[in-house]
Structure formats: C-alpha cells, structure tokens
Design brief:
The protein is mainly beta and about 210 residues long. The protein folds into 2 domains: about 80 residues, Rossmann fold (3-Layer(aba) Sandwich), CATH 3.40.50.20; about 110 residues, 3 Solenoid (UDP N-Acetylglucosamine Acyltransferase, domain 1). The chain is about 10% helix and about 30% strand. It has 2 helices and 24 strands. The strands form 4 sheets. The chain has an 8-stranded mixed beta sheet, covered by helices on one side. The protein has a 6-stranded parallel beta sheet with strand order 7-10-13-16-19-22, with no helix packed on it. It is globular, with a radius of gyration of 17 Å. The protein starts with 5 loop residues before the first strand and ends in an 8-residue tail after the last strand.
Length: about 210
C-alpha cells in the first residue's frame, strides 16, 4: 500500500511504530483514532474518537493496537472499511507468502516460503517465521521471536518477546507464550505457558478473550 491515505486506529505505543512504518512506506496518514487520546502521535494530525472513523470502502485503515482481543473487537465493529496490509521496506517476505487484510509486518522481519498470515496479524520487529508456518487471525508475534518450519499459531495467540518454537509445534487459540519461552511441544487453547521448555501455568475459560 503506497498511494492511499491511511487511517490509524490506536494511539498508544504500538501505534507509534505503525506511524513510523507508514512514514517509511511514504503513506500519508489521514487520521489517528482512539477512545483514549494519549500523547499526540503527529503534530499535524489530531487524535479523534474511534466513532469518527469513516466506515466506507474508500477508507483504508489499520488497527495499531497490540492487544489481540482489542483488534478483534474493533475489526468486528466495521462492515465496509478496507483493511490495509503494511510491510516494512526492510522486511523480507517470500513472494508466495499469503498476507491477510489488516496484517502488519515490522522492520527486520524474515518470512520464508509457504507461510500463511491471517487477518490483523502482527509480526513484530526482527522476528523470523520459517517455511510453511500458519499464523491465524489476530495473532501477535512479539519482537525477536523465532518460529521454525511448520509451526501453527491458532487465532489470537500471543507469542512473547524472544520466544522460540521448534518445528511442527502447534499452539491453540487465544493462548499466551511468555517472553523467552521455548515451545518444544504443542500447547492447548486458552492457556498461558512459560519457561524452557514452555510449560502450562494457567488454563483460561473458553471465551475469556472476548470479555
């Protein structure tokens, strides 16, 4: 995406990085929106309430919020808006990689052949995703993560900073993998896992992410 104006939904720390990404791509930012305005991100672009986002096919937007559940809620509230795909110019992505609408790939990322990225995924700074991985909708791979080949992250998985996944492991929907953890076996849905190797420390009730 290089020619359209971009509407950024979110005004926190992650939004700062998305603003920098848009600027690196030469994209003009048409608006920044958040219920909590926080610190202004751009001097010439005021932060407006989310209710002011034009829900039109001609509106190109991205949800610049790190929380997977928040991105899911916000995405569901729009019916017509066109979700942009943003890929930093320093990222390398194999030409056959499928990238879903609303997905953001940050600086220094490497994504190898056969991988699929769902909608509203975040692949954060300097992470690597090897061949034939599948990252479903609303996944967030934090900075410095490393996914070996054939790893599968179901909807809403959060992979903490510098976590690692050995080949073929699967993580169930809406699970959290703690910072620096090493996933050596598949993990169930709605769990929090930490450590080397990663072990489940908390089970969460199904649907907790929607609260």
């Amino acid at each position: 995406m290089r020619k359209k104006e971009l509407h950024i939904l979110g005004a926190g720390g992650h939004a700062k990085v998305v603003v920098a990404l848009a600027q690196a791509l030469g994209i003009r930012i048409a608006g920044i929106y958040a219920n909590d305005k926080g610190v202004p991100l751009l001097e010439d672009v005021p932060t407006l309430p989310l209710s002011r986002v034009p829900d039109l096919p001609s509106t190109h937007g991205v949800i610049a919020i790190g929380s997977n559940a928040a991105r899911q809620r916000i995405a569901a509230s729009f019916q017509q808006l066109t979700w942009a795909r943003l890929i930093h110019p320093t990222a390398w992505i194999s030409p056959d990689v499928k990238v879903g609408a609303g997905t953001v790939v940050m600086a220094g990322v490497i994504i190898q052949p056969g991988t699929q990225l769902g909608t509203h995924v975040i692949v954060n700074t300097s992470s690597s995703v090897d061949h034939d991985c599948k990252l479903n909708d609303f996944v967030h791979v934090a900075p410095g993560c490393h996914l070996a080949g054939n790893v599968s992250l179901a909807d809403g998985v959060f992979a903490g900073i510098s976590s690692a996944f050995i080949p073929g492991t699967q993580v169930g929907a809406w699970s959290v993998v703690g910072a620096g953890s090493v996933v050596t076996r598949s993990l169930a849905a709605n769990t929090t896992s930490v450590g080397v190797p990663a072990k489940v420390i908390k089970d969460r009730p199904e649907g907790w992410h929607l609260e």
